[in-house]
Design goal:
The protein is of the alpha+beta class. About 35% of the residues lie in helices and about 25% in strands. The chain has helices spanning about 35-40, 55-80, and strands at about 1-5, 10, 15-20, 25-30, 30-35.
Amino acid sequence: NMFKEDGSVLHFAAPKVQASVAANTYVVSGHGENKRLEELLPGIINQLGPDNLANLKRIAEGYAAAGKKAGGEAGAAAEEDDIPDIGENFED
């Protein structure tokens, strides 16, 4: 996996690596796919460094916001379901 500046990842499923140590040259070949970091989690957590901390924080905030939004909508619907509409006035 090669991590890009924009937070995406160049993912090689079966990379082939060739090296010439004397020339300090390395070649990674194979079919590479651009993927979002979210698509590869949690399998690549051990490959992440401190430079990816900001991306992980952004992902966590996105999941937290989505959870709050879904929880808020479900909570409002549950409150409406708790009180049945009787349609009559029993105080008269």
